[in-house]
Amino acid sequence: MVTILSAKDSILNQYIAEIRDVEIQKDNMRFRRNLERLGALFAYHISRELVYETREVITPLGIANAPLLKEYPVLATILRAGLPFHQGFLSIFDKSENGFISAYRKHHKDGSFTIAIEYASVTDIDDKVVILTDPMLATGFSMVSAYRELLTKGKPRFVHFAAVIGSVEGLNYLKKNLPRKDIRIWIGALDDELTAQSYIVPGLGDAGDLAYGKKQ
Question: What CATH number was assigned to the domain covering residues 2-53+68-212?
């Protein structure tokens, strides 16, 4: 199942507009903060799909019955661009355990590239709900590679994939290369085009560079 959150008007669309805006992008702190805000909004929407159980909460004046999360999801992200987006999720799922996957584009002489997984630090994910995040879903190669790396660490019960901006090509790649059940894909805004260098158009540029400075 695929959910495009920008399909309905909400404050989420304003934050997406700001991270796209070339003038606002000049403020790295603002860019990171908007990714955090988006992470929190995504987390709220995904929280509605999780399992709850009713528990008693003692107040100063009595007892209230409240539906509380039965289990916190494991939060995993792809370094480095994913960190602010991940932090937004962590601000909502504040008891979650975490996983971090370092992936990069390994370029070849013919101009093509593959995704290389350099390092992965992942908590126990067996029979857990996992949320795997990356701000940009361009070709989809990074997300699928990270997912396959997760499977070397354990077998999750369900996986939510979350990206702020995705391309149609990247979404189709996920649909083709991920299992047909026990997953859900969440995208903030879906763009139509990729450049020859596999950047999303209109997109926003390089999220990692905009958050943390240009890499050498």
Answer: 3.40.50.2020
